[in-house]
Amino acid sequence: MKCFASVSGGLxxxxxxxxxxxxxxxxxxxxxxxxDEFPQVFKHLDKMESVLGIKIIRVxxxxxxxxxxxxxxKYFPSYQSRFCTRMFKIKPIQxxxxxxKPYKMAIGLxxxxxxTGGLGRECIYPLKEYGIKKCDVVTLCxxxxxxxxxxxxxxxxxxxxxxxxxxxxxxxxxxxxxxxFNNLIEREEYINSKFNVRYKYYTMFDKFNIPLRRxxxxxxxxxxxxxxERGNTYDADCGVFCRK
Length: 244
Known about the structure:
Elements: E1 2-6, H1 11-23, E2 28-32, H2 39-52, E3 56-59, H3 66-73, H4 83-97, E4 103-106, E5 123-124, H5 126-129, H6 134-143, H7 167-176, H8 178-193, H9 212-221
Parallel strand pairs: 1-2, 1-4, 2-3, 4-5
Helix pairs in contact: 1-6, 7-8, 7-9
């Protein structure tokens, strides 16, 4: 039976890869690229391959990147419609692994997490099996020099377009990643240019309801941005393939 392990570039899946690479050399590792990943994610995956002596298969949606799909559909992911994870993480992994049925899929749910997830009956949870908790995950990654290097202003990893960002993280993205942020502005403004609505602006980050060009102006005008005000970080449950 073919054995796969889903990795995202996050702490939990990195710790799982460390354990599996030592105890189960038969595993193959798979990562789904949405097209909106931070550059640091790919550097981390490359480092995982080098340090652990593994190969990480990179898969994508066959038709679109996340940004391309937003432009085509004139629609952004949101709290009410989390199609991003389903279409650009889960589906590409399912399509790749389905060539090898039957198979097992290892995913990085810790022993101290009271939830399940994944692709169904194929899923197994090595971190739960070995009793690995949050503090153990950090210890394992630190010992191998594999602590993920998220952008310093982010409380967690994830796509740079992820709508779960806090206000301060969005401002920091605008200030410190202007090229990435300008891409988001272009997507938002293009989609709005296709709507014949005079008084309504469709924002990518709907919980803030501010056009991204205005966010950029605010960020550029601030000499210092307070990054992590109390209660201003996100805690998203968006599936086991995102930020794990």
